[in-house]
Amino acid sequence: MPVEVKLSDLVRMNLVDAFEAEGEPPKQIAKRLTKAGIIDHFNFKNSIYTLKRKANGDCRYLDLKTRLCTIYENRPNTCRNHPRIGPRPGYCAYRSRPAKLLITE
């Protein structure tokens, strides 16, 4: 699945520093990250960046052997909230059946 991130996620992931995020236009940041091979697409209207994936479609931060996130502590909100939000809440393509979510208030 493509991972869509916001500028704040890129700062948390240490791909953009906070000073750059405040001063540079998002389009310029997207241009730099595209050139560096970090993002694949930038949605200007919503200011959403799509991270570039490995050739096999995996997230660039997924360890090939352990299948664990290599930036878990700094992972983007998309990953932090999966599968609670999205087009099919509670559904994860990598599980045999939809996840049952326990929501406590």
Describe this structure in words.
This protein has 105 residues and is an alpha+beta fold. The chain has one domain (4-80). Helices cover 25% and strands 10% of the residues. The chain has a three-stranded antiparallel β-sheet with strand order 1-3-2. The protein starts with a strand and ends in a 25-residue tail after the last helix. The model has no long low-confidence stretch (mean pLDDT 84). InterPro entries: Puta_zinc/iron-chelating_dom. It comes from Iodobacter fluviatilis. It holds the Pfam family CxxCxxCC. One of its GO terms (biological process) is methylation.
Shape: globular
Which band does the percent of strand residues land in? 5-15%
Helix and strand composition category: alpha+beta
SSE string, helices as H and strands as E:
EHHHEEH
Major sheet: arrangement of strands: 1-3-2
- Helix count from the secondary structure assignment: 4
> What would the average pLDDT be, to the nearest integer?
84
Secondary structure: helix percent = 10-25%
How far the N terminus sits from the C terminus, by CA atoms, comes to 30 Å
**Which spans of ≥5 residues are poorly predicted at pLDDT below 50?**
none
The radius of gyration over CA amounts to 15 Å
Number of extended strands = 3
Main sheet overview: 3 strands, antiparallel
The figure for the number of domains is 1
Provide key terms for this protein.
single chain, 105 residues, alpha+beta, 3 strands, 10% strand
Task: Give the SSE map.
Layout: E1 4-5, H1 7-12, H2 18-23, H3 26-35, E2 39-43, E3 48-51, H4 77-80
Antiparallel strand pairs: 1-3, 2-3
